[in-house]
Amino acid sequence: QVQLVESGGGLVQPGDSLRLSCAASASGRTFSSYAMAWFRQAPGKEREFVAAIGSNDRSTYHADSVKGRFTISRDNVKNSVYLQMSSLKPEDAAIYYCAAGNFATMAPRTYVYWGQGTQVTVSS
């Protein structure tokens, strides 16, 4: 069982940076054994893959739309995963969700645990 709590969202201007955090409380299995990911969902759109990181902390995957601007990382001591976002664009505005699963994939259905989300708004 894993409980995930996202934080760090807010209102920023285009070109700004923001760092999202996801704190995990794991029981029965260590946080480090989970693959972690960030997804986002804008109003009227489907949930979209943003980035994922493997349990070994060495494999990372980023959607083409955010590659070079966003970076996923994790700290297995703090049981946390992060999403560093830079050069934000209006189209990045969405609710961002943290997810935990067995494999670092792009498919939402492969993730077992989800947080409640944190809102990111990008507007001038």
Question: How would you briefly describe this protein structure?
Answer:
By secondary structure, the protein is mainly beta.
What is the strand and helix layout of this fold?
Blueprint: E1 2-7, E2 10-12, E3 18-26, E4 35-41, E5 48-53, E6 60-62, E7 70-75, E8 80-85, E9 94-101, E10 111-114, E11 118-122
Parallel strand pairs: 2-11
Antiparallel strand pairs: 1-3, 3-8, 4-5, 4-9, 5-6, 7-8, 9-10, 9-11
* Outline type: globular
What string, H for helix and E for strand, traces the elements in order?
EEEEEEEEEEE
Average residue-wise pLDDT: 95
Q: Pairing-aware structural class of the strands and helices?
A: mainly beta
Instruction: Characterize the main sheet.
Output: 7 strands, mixed
Number of helices: 0
Portion of residues within helices = under 10%
Distance between the first and last residues' Cα:
40 Å
What Rg, in angstroms, do the CA atoms define? 13 Å
Instruction: Point out poorly predicted stretches.
Output: none
Beta-strand percent range:
over 45%
Question: What is the total tally of β strands?
Answer: 11
Description:
- The radius of gyration is 13 Å and the shape is globular.
- Strands 2, 4, 5, 6, 9, 10 and 11 form a 7-stranded mixed beta sheet that branches. It has a 4-stranded antiparallel beta sheet with strand order 1-3-8-7, with no helix packed on it.
- The chain is mostly beta strands and 124 residues long.
- β5 and β6 form a beta hairpin.
- The mean pLDDT is 95.
- It has strands at 2-7, 10-12, 18-26, 35-41, 48-53, 60-62, 70-75, 80-85, 94-101, 111-114, 118-122.
- It has no helices and 11 strands.
